[in-house]
User: Which sequence fits this backbone?
């Protein structure tokens, strides 16, 4: 089953018995199947390509009318060709013992196809295969290297605990690596959002002797939370991550997600108090693309004494770029790197 086949099968589910699928459901299904693609800067182009692929395979017909959003207009709806009921009432093949739980489920055609492939793989000795990266196993099983990451067939159905997973399918989730520069022999990692801060912090820390850091890492923006597990593979024991990014809604969301991701792998992470404090002392700039409403809980990732000021900046639809606190400011500030000191 190609990605286009799976896309249309999931559209069948979203359609709820109808052959027409509106733009809102197109995005919902795309996001469920390809969460990383849906968050990408060119997400509209990626969805357009998938719709074109499905249309080329005569699986659906896009509407002539579009939303007229440049540079990539999307159809206002699609019509599924040969629309069929999405739920099967009986299995097409007996399951091996490892998939016996499937007999208790009402499976969609897409889910049935996923389990058929797993069933054949297990029958042919898959359980004795070596453990490999998830993308490699995903391509082997489903002809799509991202299928496992997107929980093909449903995260709450096929991929629940005790069903499909790394032990059964013999794969491991390989952490996304981050660029880093070793700057000392400490047990902490300083992770920053942007390239300029990475260059500045790594240069300055390499000249210092007393700081607690082993390395400075480039978080790569929104990728930062997914790279956190790579900290466990550094050539030194890192016990804590200090994060510093832009003061805007996205920057705080990344910081929050870094903290959560670190806790999941047994690390401590927090917003670097001194660097964020230095940045909040700087003048904000207008942020016309900022949301008019934001989740106030995002502010809780900052030290308590910074939340009011940060909230005021965001409420005014302004932001403070990380670059406001650059090489000249840091190089003239004693112990700017110290996560336990206070500017006073």
Assistant:
């Amino acid at each position: 089953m190609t990605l286009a086949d799976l896309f249309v099968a999931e559209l069948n589910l979203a359609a709820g018995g109808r052959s027409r699928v509106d733009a809102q459901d197109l995005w919902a299904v795309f996001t469920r199947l390809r969460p990383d693609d849906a968050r990408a800067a060119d997400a509209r182009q990626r969805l357009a390509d998938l719709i074109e692929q499905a249309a080329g395979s005569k699986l659906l017909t896009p509407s002539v009318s579009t939303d007229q959003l440049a540079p990539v207009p999307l159809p206002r709806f699609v019509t599924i060709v040969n629309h069929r009921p999405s739920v099967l009432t009986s299995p097409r093949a007996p399951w091996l013992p490892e998939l016996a739980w499937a007999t208790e489920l009402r499976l969609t055609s897409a889910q049935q196809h996923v389990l058929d492939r797993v069933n054949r793989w297990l029958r042919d000795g898959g359980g004795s295969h070596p453990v490999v990266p998830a993308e490699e196993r995903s391509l082997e099983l489903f002809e799509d290297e991202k299928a496992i990451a997107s929980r093909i067939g449903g995260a709450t159905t096929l991929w629940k605990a005790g069903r499909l997973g790394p032990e059964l399918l013999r794969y491991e989730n390989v952490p996304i690596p981050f660029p880093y520069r070793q700057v000392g022999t400490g047990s902490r990692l300083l992770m920053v959002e942007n390239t300029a801060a990475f260059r500045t912090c790594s240069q300055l820390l390499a000249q210092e002797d007393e700081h607690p850091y082993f390395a400075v890492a480039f978080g790569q923006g929104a990728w930062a939370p997914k790279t956190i597990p790579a900290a466990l593979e550094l050539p030194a024991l890192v016990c804590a991550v200090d994060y510093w990014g832009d003061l805007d809604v996205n920057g705080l969301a990344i910081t929050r997600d870094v903290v959560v991701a670190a806790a999941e792998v047994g690390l401590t992470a927090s917003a670097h108090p001194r660097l964020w404090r230095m940045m909040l002392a700087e003048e904000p700039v207008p942020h016309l693309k900022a949301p008019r409403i934001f989740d106030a809980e995002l502010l809780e990732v900052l030290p308590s004494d910074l939340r009011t000021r940060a909230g005021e900046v965001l409420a005014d639809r302004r932001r403070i770029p990380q670059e406001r606190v650059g090489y000249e400011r840091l190089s003239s500030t004693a112990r700017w790197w110290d996560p336990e000191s206070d500017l006073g």
